[in-house]
């Protein structure tokens, strides 16, 4: 009987995926040792032998090179089945795997990059998603180190075969560097920060054309790293010397501001397990019955103070990747989850970053290219918090108005147009019936009310024909 790949308590049921792989391994034992059979495989045998080889690689590190030689010899589908099974293990089992199996997964990932297997990019994405923000445990730091090593050591192959994968790594390590940079750790953490910085700077300097594909959230991530000398230089060039990046049509930050960040990038900072639980909250839990589910989620994923930075990632994920349930009006809405997460912020800088994540698409909104539903949680949270939780409405609206004036003073006109456009789109798409709930609410402070009315007066002027 083969050993186990995962840690399991005495009374835990056997995992069906692991059980299937073990069964294949046990049945194919005779085919896994040299001399290998030269007979062609029957169609039904091929996937089972692939599964057996994979289980053997993860279970028997000393025999991994023998197993991989057999895999290379029998392959007939570009490693598609094998790579998809590795990816599935990462998505479904990674947190439960024994350490030796995790080490072997990274080894397998390197092998799949070398042979340019079908789906190797998806495998790298799956591994990147297992890097948890705000987690300084030895295992998580090890995974960070291994993955940044893969991206640096396999640079040429990645550039040649699928350069876009570099932007996925860049997004993850820019975000993780903000966490790691907050600590002055031991030599291992310092070396990790050095490697992460080396990779990010290389992508930004050598392939800025690819970096633009990340869109506006690239700027949001970079601004958290300007205290690091290498990134301060990047920031200065973005502002004052964009020609340094050698991209013909990149003349100013406005180019990046106008590029919407695609949903995949936000998924990179949410583990599959976390995503499943968030989607369950937003599709199955009735509004009013959410407290125990929220408490469980917080205990599972936000239990230590360092994990608080995850709140910002979750906010972007909910706003930009999730959609409100179509199952009925009684299902927990996104704005309510966002409100709960906002109230979970304990540190002032986390709260500020959370609000920025909530409003970020507002600042550069363009009705032709942006999705108004990304703005829905913020507007509905402000509207529905009146009158019972008007302090939330006041705080959010004040933050938005401060952003308009101060986020990028040199390009304030771009931001004003973006915010006015999002208000207009929210009205035109029926997300909110009227802005009077904000502009004429006695629950708002008089100063904020007047500032909002002044802002909205510009919208009335610029969109008069459309609103008539």
TrEMBL record:
**Pfam families, per the entry:** Ints3_N
Annotated ranges, domain Integrator complex subunit 3 N-terminal: 45-454
**Coiled-coil region list:** none
Membrane-spanning segments: none
A Gene Ontology term for the protein's cellular component? cytoplasm
PANTHER family xrefs: INTEGRATOR COMPLEX SUBUNIT 3
Q: What is this protein called?
A: Integrator complex subunit 3 N-terminal domain-containing protein
Taxonomy, top ranks, is:
Eukaryota, Viridiplantae, Streptophyta, Embryophyta, Tracheophyta
């Amino acid at each position: 009987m083969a050993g186990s790949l995962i840690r399991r308590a005495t009374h835990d049921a056997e995992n069906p995926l692991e059980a299937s792989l073990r069964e294949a391994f046990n049945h194919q034992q005779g085919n896994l040792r040299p001399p290998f059979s030269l007979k062609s495989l029957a169609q039904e045998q091929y996937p089972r032998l692939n599964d057996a080889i994979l289980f053997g690689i993860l279970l028997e590190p000393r025999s991994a090179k023998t197993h991989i030689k057999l895999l290379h010899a029998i392959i007939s589908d570009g490693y598609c089945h094998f790579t998809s099974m590795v990816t599935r293990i990462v998505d479904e089992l990674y947190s439960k795997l024994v350490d030796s199996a995790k080490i072997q997964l990274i080894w397998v990932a390197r092998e799949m990059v070398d042979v340019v297997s079908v789906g190797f990019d998806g495998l790298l994405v799956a591994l990147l998603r297992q890097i948890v923000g705000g987690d300084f445990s030895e295992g998580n730091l090890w995974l960070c180190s291994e993955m940044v090593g893969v991206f640096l050591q396999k640079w040429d192959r990645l550039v040649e075969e699928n350069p876009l994968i570099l932007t996925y790594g860049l997004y993850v390590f820019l975000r993780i560097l903000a966490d790691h940079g907050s600590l002055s750790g031991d030599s291992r953490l310092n070396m990790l920060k050095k490697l992460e910085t080396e990779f990010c700077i290389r992508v930004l300097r050598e392939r800025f054309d690819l970096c633009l594909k990340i869109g506006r959230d690239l700027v949001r991530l970079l601004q958290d790293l300007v205290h690091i000398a290498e990134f301060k230089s990047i920031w200065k060039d973005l502002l004052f010397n964009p020609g340094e990046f050698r991209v013909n049509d990149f003349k100013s930050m406005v180019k990046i501001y106008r590029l919407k960040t695609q949903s995949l990038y936000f998924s990179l900072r949410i583990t599959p397990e976390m995503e499943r639980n968030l989607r369950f909250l937003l599709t199955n839990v009735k509004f009013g019955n959410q407290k125990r589910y929220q408490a469980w989620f917080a205990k599972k994923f936000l239990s230590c103070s360092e994990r608080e930075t995850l709140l910002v990632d979750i906010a972007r994920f909910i706003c930009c990747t999730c959609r409100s349930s179509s199952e009925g009006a009684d299902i927990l809405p996104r704005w309510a989850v966002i409100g709960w997460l906002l109230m979970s912020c304990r540190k002032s800088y986390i709260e500020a970053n959370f609000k920025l994540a909530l409003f970020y698409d507002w600042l550069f909104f363009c009705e032709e290219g942006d999705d108004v539903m990304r703005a829905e949680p913020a507007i509905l949270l402000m509207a529905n918090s009146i009158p019972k939780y008007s302090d939330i409405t006041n705080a959010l609206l004040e933050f938005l108005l401060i952003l308009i004036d101060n986020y990028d003073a040199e390009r304030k006109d771009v931001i004003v147009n973006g915010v006015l456009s999002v208000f207009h789109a929210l009205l035109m798409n029926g997300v909110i019936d009227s802005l009077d709930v904000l502009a004429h609410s006695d629950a708002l402070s008089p100063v904020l009310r007047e500032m909002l009315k002044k802002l909205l007066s510009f919208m009335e002027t610029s969109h008069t024909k459309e609103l008539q």
